[in-house]
Amino acid sequence: MMLRHLLKLIWRRKSRNLLLSLEILLAFVLVFAVAAFAARYVQLQQLPTGFSYRNQWMVQIRTEKPLVNDAAVYDQVQRNLLALPEVEQVAFAALPVYQMSRRSGTYERADGTGPIRLDVQDASDQYGPTMDMRVASGRWFSSADDGADTTPVVINQLAAERLFPGAVKAAVGKLFSDPSDENNPTRYRVVGVVDAFRSQGELMDPVPFMLPRFRPGVGKEAMTIIMLKLRPGTPRAFESALSTRIKQLQPQWSLVITPLTEARASMLSLQLVPLKIGAVIAAFLLVMVAFGLFGVLWQNTMQRTPEIGLRRALGAASGSIYRQIIAEQFLLSSGAMLVGLLLLVQLPLTGVMSETLNWPVFWVAVALSAAVIYLLSLLSSLYPGWRAARLSPVQALHHE
Predict the structure, then answer these.
(1) CA gap 104, 178 in Å, rounded
(2) Alpha-carbon distance 365 to 187, whole Å?
(3) Angle at Cα 285 formed by Cα 355 and Cα 281, nearest 5°?
(4) pLDDT tens across 163-207, in order?
């Protein structure tokens, strides 16, 4: 009965409440966007990246001329680095990790169906052990693949699902190809499947990934990244000895040496910039909306002074007046958020934002946004409600 009465009061003042509802709707959508962004980041952080970073270092080779794929050079560098007591594993790769660098291509299944878009990271035989990557099924490529008529490749679980739907568990041994060269398409054979691989770290969206085998001296493309697995506790000062050893072998190389712990921290900081900017903008606008809500509520409450005085004269307690003002604001906020929810629910329903706004992220963002708006509504209505509750019947009935 009380709810119906409050709804009638809100409806009678619908022209006044329209602006208030629009402000609440705008605030709800704004908070939802930031909350969804944050919830997605939290969700992504729970997923495995597929590799370790704690004892891994990365060396980026920079040269004035394109690096030549010389097997003797790679063998010399690997043997000399492994001779250092701090180094446990050495591998080579085409692209760095924890950086924005990405390479992708379009591939076809053995029956010609597709296309399937995959991210690509060419890597040497030692890449998996160096990065502490766990092979879920099959094996990592090795010298046992020398002489094969197909390029051995390790793929992640998502790539297996895209390439071989319905046969993910039997992905090892299956073929697919790169059709970019119609006369001589490159054929790949899956030798292993890893659970995950996200080269940009914890906040990267999962993507289908393939890691083709790089063999020094075979093919034109040279690898410009050296990955190292070091003994636990190796100090940062080891960089000097490492740089000296490589420079003795290849003095023309310019080197950028980065522990993956530092690369990860830098990448996380960069990836969080949009969220931080969005949070600052949202906080500023919420303060503006809060002042707007307070002003409109104050004006509405003062305009209702005669009505409040009549209720007080008829015996209504001050607490009842207080609760009514707050309840009306909560109902108004609920109505505005319901409209916003009807609009926003179209995003996960249509899949326009793919996995970025999946259902768990959506509902967490809705809950957080609703909590913020209700808190904002409560804070904005506390003082106007308190002032209305303190009005004496005589003072209210004589109000002009």
Answers:
(1) 11
(2) 44
(3) 55
(4) 999 887 889 999 999 988 777 788 999 999 999 999 999 999 999
